[in-house]
Write a structure and sequence with these properties.
Strand content of chain B: 5-15%
Strand content of chain A: under 5%
Number of strands of chain B: 10
Order of helices and strands of chain B: HHHHHEEEEHHEHEEEHEEH
Number of strands of chain A: 0
Number of helices of chain A: 5
Helix content of chain B: 25-40%
Distance between the termini of chain B: 44 Å
Largest interface: A-B, 41 and 44 residues
Radius of gyration of chain A: 16 Å
Structural class of chain B: alpha+beta
Oligomer: heterodimer
Shape of chain A: elongated
Number of helices of chain B: 10
Shape of chain B: globular
Largest sheet of chain B: 6 strands, mixed, barrel
Order of helices and strands of chain A: HHHHH
Distance between the termini of chain A: 30 Å
Strand order of the largest sheet of chain B: 4-8-5-7-6-9
Chain lengths: ~110, ~300
């Protein structure tokens, strides 16, 4: 799985546990993980951009397009407050929602 | 596990996740559209962006076939970029798995849409109910094939330059899977191109081969396929000219010396992946060879 600037604070362990309990081939599981990864990414970017001013948003997106994690965190530490917790919160809610849907699917055997 | 008549866990979950994705993408653009638009415009100069950026700009990622309006927007963007191979790379980067493995049907569908759109010809992983064992794999170098009785390295090339480039590949000791490349005993210009741009695919591994080998073999004879190097965006229209390679070689298909040269793919430890999809060309209008000329007119 690709390493993102937030990989150290957002894990997918709980989702993987649920996926492993479903009847999926390895390829199907990998594909679903890709989609989940993309969903988490959108959620993180939304959270970060919501905390930044107009010009800082551009700077962030530029660093993001270059995959420059160091500069991203430098910017976020200067321009935002408590961003790590905000990212954890938004992605945590998304993960819970996904896990809930997985559990419901499993019940529908 | 089946739900109702058809849907599996995978299909159900994929549907839900894609719906989430569309909602998240829509919300992101609604809230931060101005900044994302700026990024999109900037990415035209950057040409190839990171996967992290692509996920923001292009909702038609590995997730699902893109809605038509998104495809149109991407096509419009492609027209503005002079080197379209860069756009092919960018498109494929967002959908191909990190490891070289058989694509699953959803991925094949998205990739066939991308290739059809970017190259302007209709391609698919399955045609007339037939498919290969995979559509993404490692290509290795093949030798030249005898095109007619008496063909050999001294008469095989039209120009000294071709001879200089490709003589060293040598000629295979046996004939191709379907014999000589002749039409009713005559060797034509079209036959010449078929051998020049041939690939070898493991027809014997195609689903259904053991049940009906003759039908499969007839289907694959000189069947047109688009072969794309996803790492440089180069694509070539080929025909299936031989069966192989064997599974133990670690290669999934083979390419003629000319195909390998154009795609910039190498053999041995440096062998690399390509995508190979059927070309739906019932009227036989798609010419064989490198596809760069299409790009200029697409």
């Amino acid at each position: 799985m690709k390493k993102h600037f937030y990989s150290h604070i957002v894990d997918s362990v709980s989702i993987n546990i649920e996926l492993n309990q479903m009847q999926l081939s390895i390829d199907e599981k990998n594909h679903l993980i890709q989609i989940i990864d993309s969903n988490i990414h959108l959620s993180v970017v939304d959270t970060v951009l919501s905390e930044l001013a107009k010009e800082d948003k551009k700077t962030f997106l530029k660093h993001l397009s270059e995959d420059n994690h160091e500069k991203i965190w430098q910017l976020l530490k200067e321009k935002t407050e408590n961003i790590e917790n905000k990212i954890k919160k938004s992605t945590g809610e998304l993960k819970q929602q996904i896990i809930k849907e997985m559990k419901e699917l499993k019940k529908k055997k | 596990m089946l739900f109702g008549k058809k849907k599996t866990h995978y299909q159900h979950l994929r549907e839900k996740l894609v719906k989430h994705h569309q909602g998240l993408h829509k919300r992101l653009w609604k809230k931060h559209g101005e900044s994302l638009k700026w990024l999109k415009e900037s990415s035209k100069q950057l040409v190839v962006g990171s996967a992290a950026t692509l996920m923001l700009l292009n909702p038609a990622t590995a997730l699902t076939p893109a809605p038509q309006h998104n495809l149109m927007a991407v096509k419009q963007l492609a027209d503005e970029i002079p080197d379209k191979s860069a756009f092919v790379i960018l498109d494929l980067r967002s959908v191909l798995p990190s490891e070289i493995r058989p694509l699953i049907p959803g991925e094949e569908q998205v990739i066939s849409e991308i290739l059809s759109r970017d190259f302007g010809i209709k391609v698919s992983a399955e045609l007339e109910g037939k498919k290969l064992n995979r559509s993404y794999g490692l290509i290795g170098a093949e030798q030249h094939l005898a095109r007619f009785p008496g063909d050999n390295m001294s008469v095989h090339f039209d120009t000294p330059e071709e001879a200089r480039l490709y003589t060293s590949s040598g000629m295979a000791p046996g004939l191709g899977g379907w014999g000589y490349f002749t039409t009713n005993g005559e060797f034509t210009e079209k036959d010449k191109l078929k051998e020049k741009y041939y690939i070898a695919v493991p027809t014997f591994l195609a689903p259904g081969f053991s049940d009906n080998p003759h039908e499969i073999i007839n289907f694959f004879k000189h069947r047109k396929m688009l072969v794309v190097n996803p790492e440089n965006g180069k694509a070539v229209v080929t025909v299936v000219g031989d069966a192989g390679p064997a599974e133990w070689t670690g290669k999934h298909l083979g390419g003629s010396p000319e195909v390998m040269s154009y795609l910039n793919r190498e053999d041995g430890s440096k062998k690399g992946p390509v995508l190979y999809f059927f070309i739906d060309d019932p009227e036989n209008k798609v010419p064989l060879g490198p596809i760069e000329s299409y790009n200029k007119n697409a």
